[in-house]
Sequence to fold (235 residues):
Amino acid sequence: MKLLIIIPAYNEGASIVATVENLKAVCPGYDFIIVNDGSSDDTSALCSAQGYPTLELPINIGLAGAFQTGMRYAFQKGYDYALQFDADGQHLPQYIEPMFEKAQEGANIVIGSRFIKVKKPKNLRIIGSYLISWTIKLTTGAAICDPTSGMRLYDREMIAEFASNINYGPEPDTISYLIKNGTCVSEVQVEMGERKAGKSYFDLGGSMWYMVKMLLSILIIQFFRLRVKSGEGRK
Fold:
């Protein structure tokens, strides 16, 4: 069973080497690919100097586009599983193996969850997580403890679907939509580190707008989406 670790990176020059070297030390048996999302810092030069396998995007297209680029690569190369892994050091590689094992038990998607055994703290960002969990439960019946976790592992079926559908972002609304359409989603307890350096995709205002978009999408838009699996509707 082949697993590809996809590492989207945008201006992560201050953390990318430490993140990848830690990943290689803890999980030497897994392939990885960095998707450099049009970084304006030295991310590309550092990856080249270290000999890291990298897909270079000429402009910044955002996390969803960078992740889908990695999924298309995984699909074309015939990987059985793909895992989204942050370039900033927050995702810890020691949890990749437990997630991989859970996926091989039959889950289509495995989420690295911070909150299966740990109670959610009370802060603005986590309140958004509570609301998203509630809307997913309301619309699908599934209890997802950590819907905003970006550490997710996908099986071959999901790789093909994400590679083929431009509106499949690696976000809670897509997870909710797939659950509603019969996808098996499981969670594994993980811990996450602090960002080592660099800047998040989202500031406070961006995070609040993100939560609003997710809630509207889960409550309304997912009911009008049409699921097209890989190969369907193609000639």
Q: What stands out?
A: The two ends are 30 Å apart (CA to CA). DSSP finds eight helices and seven strands in the chain.
